[in-house]
Amino acid sequence: MKTLVYVDHVDGVIADATFELVALAQSVGSSSVEALVCAGNEEIVEKVAAQLPGIENVIAASSSEFENYLPNLHLQCLNETIELKNPDLVLLSYSTSGVDMGSGAAYASNLPLVCYVTEMTIEASEMVTASQVYGGKLVANVKTPLPAIAVVMPGAIKSDLAKKDTTPAIETITTPTDTTNIKVVESLQPESGGIDLTKAERIVCIGRALGGTEKLPIVEELANTLDAEVAGSRPVIDAGWLPKARQVGKSGTKVKPKLYLMAGVSGAAEHLEGMSDSELIIALNSDEQAPIFSKAHYGAVCDMFHVLPVLTERLQNNS
Amino acid sequence: MKVVVILRLNPVLTDELELTEDESDIDREWIGLEINQFDDQSLEQAILLKESSDAHVTAIAIKDEGVERLLKTALAKGVDQALQISLEEIEDRSSRALAPMYAAAIRELQPDVVIVGVLSTDDLFGELAPYIAADLGWSQASAISDFRIEADKIIVRQEYSGGRAALLEMATPAVVGLQTATQPPRYVAGSKLRDLLKVEIPNLSIDVAPNLEKVGSTELALPDLSEGATMFEGDTDAIAEQIHSLLQEKGFAS
């Protein structure tokens, strides 16, 4: 079975999720693993190849056009590589590029596509996967005949990378010309707003159930009492209830505090990606089916607006 | 600039979800539906573009239970036009199946930009924006927050992992998978909706079939929560007390 992995990288620094894809490709029994790297120059390609000693071949599209990620140009490159190599399995990470390219590649190559994959085996030329759907409330068990494309959740499948002594061969492919007129005007670095959640040892995270800023003081007071930072899941940030710098999850910050107390966060995969390595996770939610209860260490089905003030009071009275 | 915004309904995820007998889909008989939260952001973004750049906005949706109300809400919020695409029967609601229908509607309407929520919670087989773009042969960018029109081009902000982002300039026509609008979605007054009670939402007829090609098999299941959290039971005081004890035990409180 030939597997093609699309490499997510920034200036040659490979994303953790891409290493997970390579390890996954190895663990499901690929006879060869090739990686597609789109990069601004050959040096970056070499830097990427040097980090991937476990694979056979790096397929490189290097051109100044690839200095920045451009959705359609990269998709064109992936499509051409699939056509050229006829892989049995194509693996992408569920990142912005994975969303941009998964469906487009499936359409162009007429291959089946399965997204949000958290488990995968290959059984008798079939890709057997489990995916999180409906915000993690249901699991979809899908059997798909190969060849197929899968978009895999970062952090979901952790297997060891089999390293070999040899660095992969680099095969350069002709790069497509961008006919679609997307240009990068400016690259933007994360907005810190003076807060660095990655350094916080204790975080109190609030979810969509907050419902507005009126009840935010309840959360802030608990956080103050616990000497914790306040964070929010994406809907809280999108609604403007907390600043972007306080967002935990896929498009926010990835955190690993000692204490992660979360209230009203359902636990969609995008949020879990940002906090699942926390040492102690306590989740409060009014929905007993909330997927967060499968990831938290401790949980309670309750009305957070009742429990949080009582907890704050108890903590204050005991300090 | 002509903008088409696509609106879809999703199950309310705080409700309990039940499966159909063959476990291939959720049982839609009793579930509550609400606007896909990312489509709500798309709708807001489209109206903001109308207000700031005089864009002409058409909201489209596939005719289904609750869709008339959805489109009337869009009209009440300020879109210029709302249309429903009717199908004889909706056998498969996945983005992969329905993308050709939307693409056909877009060919008919000939907008400069299509805005659609970056994902739907049931996008197991891929997201709508890139499928539509592939079908139309247009450029596409997903995970977009912030959006403005500059002459005949659009400037969008694409979000990446770890809080990085880029401003992209896209020539039109283009499809955008929107994550977050420039401003949070506005509310609509009940009185405005009542004014639209008698308005009929016109049908847009297209003669393209959905993609019903089935590859492989799918079964849905409830996640296994048995190995999950240790649950605290009891009333408010009991739960607060147990969390407090845990925090003391782990050294987070005295």
Give the averaged pLDDT of chain B, no decimals.
Answer: 93
Level-1 CATH class name of the largest domain in chain B: Alpha Beta
CATH architectural category of the largest domain in chain A: 3-Layer(aba) Sandwich
Write the H/E string of chain A, N to C.
Answer: EEEHEHEHEHEEEEEEEHEHEHEEH
CATH topology of the largest domain in chain B: Rossmann fold
When the domains of chain A are counted, the total is 2
| Helix and strand run of chain B | EEEHEHEHEHEEEEHEEEH
Q: Write the CATH homologous superfamily of the largest domain in chain B.
A: HUPs
CATH class assignment of the largest domain in chain A: Alpha Beta
Strand-pairing-aware structural class of chain A? alpha/beta
Described by the principal axes of the CA atoms, the overall outline of chain A is elongated
What is the CA-atom radius of gyration of chain A, in angstroms?
22 Å
Number of domains of chain B: 2
Largest sheet of chain B: 9 strands, mixed
Q: Give the helix proportion of chain A (percent range).
A: 25-40%
The end-to-end span of chain B amounts to: 61 Å
Helix/strand structural class of chain B: alpha/beta
**Strand count of chain B:** 13
Low-confidence segments of chain B: none
CATH homology-level superfamily of the largest domain in chain A: HUPs
From the 3D structure, determine the CATH topology of the largest domain in chain A: Rossmann fold
What does this protein structure show overall?
The complex is a heterodimer of chains A (319) and B (254). Chain A has 319 residues and is an alpha/beta fold. In chain A, 28% of the residues lie in helices and 30% in strands. Chain A is built from eight helices and 17 strands. In chain A, strand 7 and strand 8 form a beta hairpin. The termini of chain A are far apart. Helix content of chain B is 28%, strand content 28%. Chain B has a nine-stranded mixed beta sheet, with helices on both faces. In chain B, strands 2-3 form a two-stranded antiparallel ribbon. In chain B, helix 3 crosses helix 4. Chain B is globular. The mean pLDDT of chain B is 93. At the A-B interface, helix 3, helix 4, strand 7, strand 8 and strand 9 of A face helix 4, strand 7, strand 8, strand 9 and strand 10 of B. Strand 9 (138-145) of chain A pairs antiparallel with strand 12 (217-221) of chain B, so a sheet runs across the interface.
